[in-house]
Amino acid sequence: MKIKSALENYIFVLPAVLIFSIFYIIPFFSVLQLGFYDWDGILPTKIFIGLSNFKEIFSDRIWWQSLWQSGYITLIALTFQNALAFLLAWACDREIRMKNFYRVIFFIPPVLSEVVVGLVWQWILNGNYGILNHWLTHFGFANLTRNWLSDPNTALTMVAIVHCWKGFGWGFLLFLAGLQTIPRELYEAAHVDGANAWQSFKSVTIPMMISVVVLVAILTILGTMQVFVLIYTMTGGGPGYHTEVPVLRILASMRGSSRFGYACAQGITFGVILCMISFVQLIVSRKAKN
Amino acid sequence: MKSGLYYKTKKVTLNLIIHLLLLTVATTCILPLLWMISSSLKTQETIFKDMSIIPRVFHFENYYQAWIEGGFGRYFLNSIFYTVAVVIGIVFISSMAAYAFSRLRFPGRNVLFFIFMAAMMIPLQGSFVALYVLLNKLHLRNTALGYILCMINVGLSTSIFLLKTFFDKMPKELEDAARIDGCSKIGIWWHVALPLAKPVLAVVVILNALNVWNEFILALLIFDSRPLMPLQVALMTFQGEFVTRYPLLMAGLTIAALPIIILYLLMQKYIIKGVTQGAVVG
Hints:
The complex is a heterodimer of chains A (290) and B (282).
Chain A: H1 2-34, E1 37-38, E2 47-48, H2 52-58, H3 61-92, H4 99-106, H5 108-111, H6 114-124, H7 131-138, H8 155-180, H9 184-192, H10 197-225, H11 229-234, H12 246-256, H13 260-289
Antiparallel strand pairs in A: 1-2
Helix pairs in contact in A: 1-13, 3-8, 3-10, 8-10, 9-10, 10-13, 12-13
Chain B: H1 4-40, H2 61-68, H3 72-103, H4 109-121, H5 127-137, H6 144-169, H7 173-180, H8 185-196, H9 198-214, H10 217-222, H11 231-241, H12 246-281
Keywords (chain B): Cell membrane, Membrane, Transmembrane, Transmembrane helix, Transport
Transmembrane segments (chain B): 12-35, 80-99, 111-132, 144-163, 243-266
Membrane topology (chain B): Multi-pass membrane protein
């Protein structure tokens, strides 16, 4: 009876476990394995080459450049995007009109697909026919106009800004949710004690928000390091390799040069780097809480 | 005399600055989309010269052309089909699993649940390489079924988490009553648990629908043949081939963006709830 009941219970989880095993667990281990092989993805023969792929990654300059560039985008997202998100959340956390309107609008970019956002912004930033250059000329800043996405000096920053445009609504929402959980009495108490706006912000808001800030920071870093669809649609990694990011490199190893083993080795390297980042953050956030 | 009027003026000024800031950012959110729609209503000749946000003549025929000639009608229906199929799959599979993880007892329950949750945390990069190889082996690449199964897998962990959290808090009395009435386990799940879980199911449905509709990379790798492609990949292909046909591309982008914006405006309560809950997991 007991065995029969347990078997019956397994039926509930069977479909989920089956799909998860085939489409998550198997690929997971096969990435770990393929990283040590030289394989073009087609021929049945895979050649075991030990750590050669990883050695090659160490001297792959474009790989490290791509990693640095996604780090640059992450840095901008972490500072500019999250500061903006926090400022807007703080501005909305009070009795003002149209609060709901703002909240609804700010979350429109995050629900759009990266393909749509990338292609629309590519059109806006177009060097010859883009509206941005048109307006710059119109308002007398003609000397600022440029081919934003094919100029090596601006391409990466432009991509980062569009990434922030698409993403700030997330942080805004989480910050606002956090701010609204702070009891009003704390502010009133601070006010009674004679604290001005800045002092009550420093001694009430920041301590109460620290865990939300850490959460948003972790999500921003992990999310932004893995950015690539936006870049794929806006620049494709160019000009040259100036907007390449790791996931684009993995894709290029796989589709461009048919080096499946090398692509998997890159994937493993990147995964390990991300795990190390999350580990460091975990320690830092523990320390921040104490 | 630093009371009354002084504080009132100060407050009004602060509110004014705040509204100015919020309005500026809100405008930056909307303007690119307006520009997209505006560009989709111009012709191939006017689009490079007419820089006004509201075009002089509205060329709605672009949408007809994009829908028929550009093939976006086909891709649109593909996207709808994949979205509906994946969401239905996820709702059934994840709610059954979540119910079992929450209510039923069987050996290995906690380990299995832990594995599902760990999958959300581990940033596995390049899994699409292995997935591509696997689907080739299973002859599922370039098939609708292959894509649907992959996308069901993508949404499973988060959906199971959201549903289990709900089932854990759900009172047991109703289920007990149903059991005494002789209802089977499947019956209880279907007749008692699922109807009660409607608010969470709404969150699960909407989050996954957004995710599937907007998905790009797996669709890019899985589909070679044009007639099977969903909108997002088709837009990218269209952009590569018809570089100069911007009005049609913009019409295609609008076709891809509008349903999502409408869905969002109708369901924002659930989306915002799902986002704030989902973030706490990851």
